[in-house]
Amino acid sequence: MKAIESYIRDINDFPKPGIVFKDLTPLLNSPEATKLCLQELLAQVDGQHVDKVVGMEARGFFFGTLMAQALNAGFIPVRKSGKLPYETISETYALEYGSDVLEIHVDAIKPGDRVLIHDDVLATGGTAAAVCKLVERLGGVIVQCNFIMELSFLNGKDRLRAHAVRSVLTY
């Protein structure tokens, strides 16, 4: 996946000293790279039936909507507390220092819906694990947790053991 990887730039010391941020904006700026990345993400779904694609705020929205369209599935945004206009359920999850809350509309997923969860990066797995809980509370069946890249040294996959996890790139 060198072709995709060449469009991801490292930004040192962002958002704080010692962090190397993986910036996807050059990939998004290239129609060819975006198309290639989308093809790789869809190949990982391996022809499984998907009713809904859940994308996490905000970078999970970029490819999540494209995947939903390609899979002829609905797209569901999961957002931070207070950002969705209709009735929601919420899930609190731990951050490095403190916690945060994610929300989903109560009518977004019907019992038995087959759901693909997508985000750009799998790091510690806290966000993805919280989204899995939201989907399951609404009765959704998680087909896969799907990422553009996995930062394997942070062991995020460990928090998602109950689900299939796929990434285009692994660091």
Automatic annotation (TrEMBL):
Enzyme class label: transferase
Functional pathway: Purine metabolism; AMP biosynthesis via salvage pathway; AMP from adenine: step 1/1
Domain of life from the UniProt record: Bacteria
Residue ranges of domain Phosphoribosyltransferase in the record: 39-145
Any one GO MF annotation of this record: adenine phosphoribosyltransferase activity
Entries under InterPro entries matching the protein: Ade_phspho_trans (IPR005764), PRTase-like (IPR029057), PRTase_dom (IPR000836), UPRTase/APRTase (IPR050054)
Predominant localisation class: cytoplasm
Places the protein is found: Cytoplasm
Listed Pfam families: Pribosyltran (PF00156)
Reaction equation(s) it catalyzes: AMP + diphosphate = 5-phospho-alpha-D-ribose 1-diphosphate + adenine
Keywords: Cytoplasm, Glycosyltransferase, Purine salvage, Transferase
Enzyme Commission number(s) from the entry: 2.4.2.7
Similarity field: Belongs to the purine/pyrimidine phosphoribosyltransferase family.
UniProt function note: Catalyzes a salvage reaction resulting in the formation of AMP, that is energically less costly than de novo synthesis.
The protein's assembly and partners: Homodimer.
Name used for this protein in its record: Adenine phosphoribosyltransferase
